[in-house]
C-alpha cells in the first residue's frame, strides 16, 4: 500500500507570479509593484487571490509575501 502523499500543485497566473517575484527580488517581500496592464480593480483581484491562497498577508497597511509565497515560487524563505 502506498501511503506517500503528494503536495498539491499551486497554479498562479502570470500576473501573480510577476507581482510575487518583484516583491521578493526588489522590496524585501513588500507588494509595491504591478505590471502596467494591471490597473484599479484588477490589482485588487490579484491581491485577493494571493491572500486567499495565503501567499501574502496584510501588515500595517502593506501586503507582504508569506513563506507560502516563497515556496510557491520555489524560492528560499528569508532567514
Which helices and strands appear, and what pairs or packs with what?
Layout lengths: L13 H13 L13 H13 L3 E4 L2 E4 L1 H6 L7
What does this structure look like?
A hairpin with a 2-residue loop joins strand 1 and strand 2. The protein has three helices and two strands; from the N terminus they run ααββα. 41% of the residues lie in helices and 10% in strands. By secondary structure, it is α+β, with helices and mostly antiparallel strands. It has a two-stranded antiparallel ribbon.
What is the compact description of this entry?
By secondary structure, this protein is an alpha+beta fold.
What are the salient characteristics of this protein?
79 residues; alpha+beta; two-stranded antiparallel ribbon
In spatial order, strands of the major sheet run: 1-2
Query: How much β-strand is present in the residues?
Result: 5-15%
Total helical segments: 3
Straight-line distance between termini: 38 Å
Order of helices and strands: HHEEH
The main β sheet shows up as:
2 strands, antiparallel
* Rg (CA only): 14 Å
Spans of at least 5 consecutive residues with low confidence:
none
- Find the count of extended strands (DSSP E, 2+ residues): 2
Helix fraction, binned, reads 40-55%
What is the overall shape?
A: globular
Mean pLDDT comes to 91
User: Which class do the helix and strand fractions yield?
Assistant: alpha+beta
Amino acid at each position: 500500500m502506498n501511503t506517500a502523499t503528494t503536495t498539491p500543485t499551486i497554479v498562479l497566473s502570470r500576473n501573480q507570479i510577476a507581482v510575487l517575484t518583484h516583491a521578493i527580488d526588489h522590496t524585501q517581500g513588500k507588494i509595491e509593484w504591478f505590471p502596467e496592464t494591471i490597473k484599479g480593480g484588477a490589482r485588487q483581484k490579484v491581491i485577493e487571490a494571493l491572500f486567499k491562497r495565503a501567499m501574502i498577508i496584510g501588515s500595517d497597511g502593506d501586503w507582504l509575501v508569506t513563506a507560502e509565497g516563497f515556496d510557491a515560487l520555489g524560492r528560499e524563505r528569508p532567514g
